[in-house]
């Protein structure tokens, strides 16, 4: 369709992508073999069969098991390079990606190894594919404040390779305020922050992200729609929401794509963007997400332009670089 062609040809930015969530089943098996890691799945098909989730936690259990094959610098490089090559086909020209260092530190993989692979591939992608990037260290909210503070200490020698900080993993029971002191430290470093809030958790968690963490973006934010005063606040301050349609469908945040609030968000003046979250697990990359919402929602040309603009405007590019895209 005409809308699909527009979505394909627009230069796009992806602001919500967990690099470990781009680990395709085929690469899981290749790396398992390379590293002599035993998997609890006999084949790619058996692994894929496990990709059926009723909620966030059921997904996270499979996600952390999948990433257990990531051990060497090459593994992190190959993972990141495969993602960049794939989204280049979708005309993604800027990416702001998360990684979960604590999940790899737990397996004994030093931060230096993780970063050498991820950052090396990001630099190669910039040089050969022309994809600009920001790299976001994301803390795991199911772990303690102490663990997050230790991780931040470990990150201090590498701050030149870290462009911001995030918060992900099991949302319910782990409100943003649990990490108020951690993110105050991040702010002191002069880095932007973004936290997952209102995916499964209540509007209260979005308020906390704004008032207690002073975030620069909200990841997901779906449940903000339950609170009119919160919507007003997000609109008035121009907060960017990094929305993930296929993720929301696969994690049962919405019952069907027809029920997805993306258009409602735009109509209310919220700065929503389209992102893939964990594309290897949720059925697709950037264009698969656009295709799904174009097929199932009453999107217009203006909405598509708005979505693309919102992503560049809400990115952490310099004002000069944003202007080139807006
Ligand atoms: N980690 C990876 N994907 C996530 C998501 N959608 N929500 C919370 N934590 C995550
Ligand atoms: Zn996410």
UniProtKB/TrEMBL annotation:
What's a single GO MF annotation on this record?
Answer: adenine deaminase activity
Q: Where does substrate bind?
A: 278
Question: What are the catalytic residues?
Answer: 199 (proton donor)
Task: List the record's Gene Ontology CC terms alphabetically.
Answer: cytosol
- Keyword Hydrolase present in the record's keywords: the answer is yes
Required co-factors: Zn(2+)
Annotated site (Important for catalytic activity) = 220
Q: Name one Pfam family in it.
A: A_deaminase
Positions binding Zn(2+) in this chain are 16, 18, 196, 277
**Residues in Adenosine deaminase domain copies:** 11-326
Q: Does the keyword Coiled coil apply?
A: no
Q: Which domain of life is it from?
A: Bacteria
Query: What's the EC number here?
Result: 3.5.4.2
Give the catalytic activity.
adenine + H2O + H(+) = hypoxanthine + NH4(+)
**Catalytic EC class:** hydrolase
InterPro entries in the record: A_deaminase_dom, ADE, Ado/ade_deaminase, Metal_Hydrolase
One GO BP annotation of this record: nucleotide metabolic process
> CDD domains, from UniProt?
ADA
What the record notes about the co-factor is: Binds 1 zinc ion per subunit.
Q: Which UniProt keywords apply?
A: Hydrolase, Metal-binding, Nucleotide metabolism, Zinc
Hey, which family's this protein in? Belongs to the metallo-dependent hydrolases superfamily. Adenosine and AMP deaminases family. Adenine deaminase type 2 subfamily.
| Described function | Catalyzes the hydrolytic deamination of adenine to hypoxanthine. Plays an important role in the purine salvage pathway and in nitrogen catabolism.
Q: What is this protein called?
A: Adenine deaminase
């Amino acid at each position: 369709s005409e809308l699909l062609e527009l979505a394909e040809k627009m230069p796009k930015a992806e602001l919500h992508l967990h690099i470990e969530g781009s680990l395709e089943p085929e690469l899981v098996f290749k790396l398992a073999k390379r590293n002599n890691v035993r998997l609890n799945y006999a084949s790619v098909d058996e692994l894929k069969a496990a990709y059926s989730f009723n909620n966030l936690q059921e997904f996270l259990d499979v996600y952390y098991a999948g990433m257990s094959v990531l051990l060497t610098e090459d593994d992190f490089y190959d993972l990141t390079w495969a993602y960049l090559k794939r989204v280049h086909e979708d005309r993604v020209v800027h990416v702001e990606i998360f990684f979960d260092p604590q999940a790899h530190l737990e397996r004994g993989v030093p931060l230096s190894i993780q970063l050498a692979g991820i950052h090396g591939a990001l630099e190669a992608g910039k040089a050969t594919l022309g994809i600009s990037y920001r790299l976001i260290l994301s803390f795991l909210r199911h772990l303690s404040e102490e663990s997050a503070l230790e991780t931040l200490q470990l990150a201090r020698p590498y701050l030149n390779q870290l462009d911001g900080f995030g918060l992900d993993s099991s949302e319910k029971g782990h409100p943003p305020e649990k990490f108020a002191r951690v993110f105050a430290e991040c702010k002191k470093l002069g880095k932007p922050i973004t936290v997952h809030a209102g995916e499964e958790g209540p509007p209260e968690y979005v308020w906390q992200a704004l008032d207690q963490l002073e975030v620069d973006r909200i990841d997901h934010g779906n449940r903000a729609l339950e609170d009119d005063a919160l919507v007003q606040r997000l609109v008035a301050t121009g907060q960017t929401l990094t929305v993930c349609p296929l993720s929301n469908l696969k994690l049962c945040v919405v019952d069907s794509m027809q029920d997805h609030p993306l258009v409602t968000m735009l109509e209310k003046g919220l700065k929503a963007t389209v992102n893939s979250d964990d594309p290897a697990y949720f059925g697709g990359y950037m264009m698969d997400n656009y295709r799904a919402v174009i097929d199932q929602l009453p999107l217009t040309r203006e909405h598509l332009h708005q979505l693309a603009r919102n992503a560049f405007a809400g990115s952490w590019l310099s004002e000069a670089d944003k202007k080139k895209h807006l």
